[in-house]
Amino acid sequence: xxxxxxxxxxxxxxxxxxxxxxxxxxxxxxxxxxxxxxxxxxxxxxxxxxxxxxxxxxxxxxxxxxxxxxxxxxxxxxxxxxxxxxxxxxxxxxxxxxxxxxxxxxxxxxxxxxxxxxxxxxxxxxxxxxxxxxxxxxxxxxxxxxxxxxxxxxxxxxxxxxxxxxxxxxxxxxxxxxxxxxxxxxxxxxxxxxxxxxxxxxxxxxxxxxxxxxxxxxxxxxxxxxxxxxxxxxxxxxxxxxxxxxxxxxxxxxxxxxxxxxxxxxxxxxxxxxxxxxxxxxxxxxxxxxxxxxxxxxxxxxxxxxxxxxxxxxxxxxxxxxxxxxxxxxxxxxxxxxxxxxxxxxxxxxxxxxxxxxxxxxxxxxxxxxxxxxxxxxxxxxxxxxxxxxxx
Length: 392
Fold this sequence. Notes:
Shape: elongated
Structural class: alpha/beta
Number of domains: 2
Radius of gyration: 26 Å
CATH superfamily of the largest domain: Vaccinia Virus protein VP39
Oligomer: single chain
Number of strands: 15
């Protein structure tokens, strides 16, 4: 059976079983009273140990989302619930039951669904995907759906048609190449197991370490905030900034908010980060500086832009030197690279003042606005810093 038919059969089977009853628990795939429901499912909430967002994959009519919020609140833990289900019909039932969360309920296949954000906790059952794609879905959730310090909660319920791996759910995850952070189970009154739970915390090394704040001479480097959107939009609408960077035109505050969100996501997935260069007195953004790390090559790549009213004041040089110091001390690359357009002489002067060495022209190095362009390559090695005064 091909995958589209496999998922079609799963969807139809679940809809027929869940929607044949008006009982709220049966519509969530559970048969029993409220007390038994709590005995079976509260263990999921007990794995959630801090405030955050919770995505229930296979949310059905939303009952588990609703219950987890209630049970965590009893421990003074606040959760923002979201749900995803393969069945649009079940999502419709969930939206009708929980209109206050209707914008947080989605229909889709977890293998290719594009989440609107990242989540601190994600719950899933591996039976939702074919057996040969289970390692893939775990990897996708850990890398692309969870926050940098998120937790994947894997459940297996009694009554599943599948035989568990010898040693239980945790052993099954081990066979797929993942070591659970912990595991637990919930028993019925007769001692039989109702629910197996194992959780995997997203590996810290998958995130790109980056500073919260750095002092850089007369300026400060800090993380970008959504409230900075007006300043970002104004700076990125400048003709000189637009000349050198592949930015949308016109550049709006919506683009600025997307930039902030993208940088947060990129840091969480280990690709890159960006920091605002701000005036320490007013906290007004003066520019941006960022870093991308190619760990397999041992190379960091940095770049920056400066708002028109802050140019020519040493802002970029101070920021570049401070960030380079931090990158060498914390990410340990063999070299830091910086590329500029050959005509962008001002940017090249900034880099050279910060200690970077011009290496030459790389022809047709990358694409800019639909055509291949040359760049000037500059680099900084740890040994190049010896003759520089300390930054900051």
